[in-house]
């Protein structure tokens, strides 16, 4: 595998109307989860990628496994448990285009993930480990797993890509910031959104956020700026890469698309600016489509977007 990632994926129910959920009668069933979104994005771009989780021994667990595997991701290290259910969440589309999510994931199957669930030789042979700040928020054993995977990745000379993906609905500990900074300090690439960067560093400007996070020792920091594109900085380069024009339909999943595009750029050995541009392009394509993974592009679609032939 070129890339290994892991985390919780859930069944996603989105209301079929722009109404508060109490007035919605029908829901579309899809699946989502930041890390499997990234894995699917990479597989669609032609990379070899493995994703694992702990799923409930239930219909939704089987549905998630089939969905991720069906997109070409290696799910051979996925685990099942009968001790807890597969999680679900609901997406509410509000008037004015805002989106709200409601999780039903407390004490879920994935929250039982622990360090021993990692197949160490499977990870050690990869080139890149992708982790997000969602997994460590799920439970103490999930946090231990993330730390263990990052340490093993470092010992095995993998590049670690860390997306803080701060979910306030999940974090309930006073040391949230320290934990996220601890994880960031083990990464080669840190990919915060502007708000996340502000929370982690106390700075508001992308340049200052990047400067602060670079002190933790990564090779580069890439601050995602939504419609404004992204700012990147390493010890030797920096710059802002504008986003691609797109009509926003559903912003959820954009950050994962961005991560998939960026990792694809790393695997292609592109320079930072090019990898960030590729990341912007995947993110833009994803927000133009309803669903977290449905919009993830093939390599051909991505090339068209990057050459300005579609928007
Ligand atoms: O930061 P993004 O909008 O790209 O992340 C979206 C994903 O894993 C979504 O698929 C959801 O399942 C989640 O983040 C989450 O746990 O919030
Ligand atoms: Mg995100």
What are the SSEs and their pairings?
Blueprint: E1 3-6, E2 10-15, E3 27-32, H1 34-44, E4 49-52, E5 54-56, H2 59-70, E6 79-81, E7 88-93, E8 99-104, H3 120-124, E9 128-132, H4 135-138, H5 140-155, E10 159-163, H6 176-184, E11 189-190, H7 194-201, H8 206-214, E12 220-224, E13 230-234, E14 238-241, H9 254-267, H10 272-287, H11 299-306
Parallel strand pairs: 1-4, 1-9, 2-7, 5-6, 9-10, 10-11, 11-12
Antiparallel strand pairs: 2-3, 7-8, 12-13, 13-14
The protein binds 6-O-phosphono-beta-D-psicofuranosonic acid and magnesium ion (MG).
The site of 6-O-phosphono-beta-D-psicofuranosonic acid has 14 residues, from α1 and α9.
Termini gap: 32 Å
Q: Are any ligands bound, and if so which? A: 6-O-phosphono-beta-D-psicofuranosonic acid, magnesium ion
Pattern of helices and strands: EEEHEEHEEEHEHHEHEHHEEEHHH
Portion in beta strands: 15-25%
Which residues form runs of ≥5 with pLDDT under 50?
Answer: none
Name the overall outline: globular
Major beta sheet summary: 8 strands, mixed
The total count of helices amounts to 11
Sheet with the most strands: spatial strand order: 4-1-9-10-11-12-13-14
- Which bin fits the share of residues in helices? 25-40%
> From the alpha-carbon coordinates, what is the Rg to the nearest angstrom?
18 Å
Strand elements, count = 14
What is the residue-averaged pLDDT?
95
Class by SSE composition: alpha/beta
Summarize the structure.
With 311 residues, this protein is of the alpha/beta class.
């Amino acid at each position: 595998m070129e890339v290994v990632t892991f985390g919780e994926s859930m069944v996603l129910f989105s209301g079929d109307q722009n109404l508060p959920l109490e007035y919605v009668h029908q829901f579309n069933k899809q699946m989502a989860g930041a890390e499997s979104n990234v894995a699917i994005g990479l597989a669609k771009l032609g990379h070899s990628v493995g994703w694992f989780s702990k799923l409930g021994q239930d219909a939704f667990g089987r549905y998630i496994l089939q969905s991720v595997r069906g997109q070409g991701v290696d799910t051979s290290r996925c685990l099942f448990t009968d001790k807890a259910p597969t999680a679900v969440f609901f997406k509410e589309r509000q008037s004015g285009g805002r989106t709200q999510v409601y999780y039903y994931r407390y004490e879920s199957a994935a929250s039982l993930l622990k360090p021993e669930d990692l197949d160490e030789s499977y990870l050690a042979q990869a080139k890149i480990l992708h982790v997000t700040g969602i997994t460590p928020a799920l439970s103490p054993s999930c946090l231990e797993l993330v730390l263990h995977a990052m340490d093993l990745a470092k010992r095995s000379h993998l590049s670690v890509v860390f997306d803080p993906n701060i979910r306030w609905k999940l974090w309930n500990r006073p040391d949230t910031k320290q934990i996220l900074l601890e994880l960031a300090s083990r990464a080669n690439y840190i990919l915060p959104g502007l708000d996340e960067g502000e929370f982690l560093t106390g700075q508001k400007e992308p340049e200052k956020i990047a400067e602060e996070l670079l002190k933790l020792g990564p090779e580069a920091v890439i601050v995602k700026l939504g419609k404004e594109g992204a700012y990147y900085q390493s010890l030797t380069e920096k710059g802002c890469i504008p986003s691609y024009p797109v009509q926003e339909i559903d912003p959820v999943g954009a950050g994962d698309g961005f991560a998939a595009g960026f990792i694809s750029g790393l695997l292609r050995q592109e320079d930072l600016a090019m990898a960030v541009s590729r990341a912007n392009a995947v993110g833009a394509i994803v927000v133009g489509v309803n669903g977290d993974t449905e919009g993830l592009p093939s390599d051909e679609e991505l090339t068209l977007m990057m050459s300005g032939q579609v928007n």
